[in-house]
Amino acid sequence: MAELYPQAGATGEPGVAEAWFALHVRSRHEKLVDRFLREKGFECFLPSYRSRRRWCDRVKEVELPLFATYLFCRFNPSRMLPILTTQGVIRVVGAGNKPLPVADAEIAAIRAIVESRLNVEPWPYARVGQRVLLRYGPLRGLEGELLALKGERRLIVSVTLLQRCCAVEIDEAWAVPVDRSDAARIAESPVARLGERTRSQDRRSAALAR
Prior knowledge:
The chain is of the alpha+beta class.
């Protein structure tokens, strides 16, 4: 029934741009909801990680959602009906009945981590260590909290709206304490450029809507 739902942004209030929103979905329905929404023409992002699970006679590696019962979808907030009527969707995360967008920078950071192929896992939401900037490695330009655990170093990156975090293993040599004078360097990072491309798409969508 994808033809019943035009591409996100094709309809909606004039001047209202698309943005990323977090969707709360039924347990173990993340992949199903992701597929249904894509069939309706929406852009979705379901970050995942690999986990080793022990069965009775063997250890098996499985792919799991990085943020259980949540996924991200990009759409115009003035046309949520196709989202809310999708099987498995419970609600759009927000304040009361008002959906709140997820910051482009947070989406870009999570996407960069997932695509880096480094070891990543869910992590409790908390400020756990020193704020650092990665100057080197595949995640150059990313900021987060540095955590030392069992001789390993992990970068903790959060999604503020969900109050969820993920942790990715890094080489300690990649990280330096954050200095606000590094703003120009951060702006030139691959992660920052990805966020800027997303914001540019938002501006173009708003212009077309007018």
